[in-house]
Amino acid sequence: MEKDTELKVVRLYRYEGDSKVKAFCDVAIGDFIVKGLRLVQGKDGLFLSMPQEKSKDGKWYDTFLPLTKEARQNLSEIVLAAYQE
Which of 26, 42, 50, 68 is at a distance of 20 to 30 A from 34, taking alpha carbons? Predict the structure, then answer.
């Protein structure tokens, strides 16, 4: 991700209860908004799950993918920080 691209959480909805999904959020990336990211409780802690869509074959596929590991890590850190506020 380019250094000058601004990332920020524009909406974060927390879930209460026993669900593995702890929050849904929307993120602004520059002039665009990506909707439907999820914070999920996994075996090793919270992780960021990308938005998904169910296809005709019945499987779920990500509709938004960071190009690099660093971009995914940066996005995860921003969302986790917003969740912990």
Answer: 42
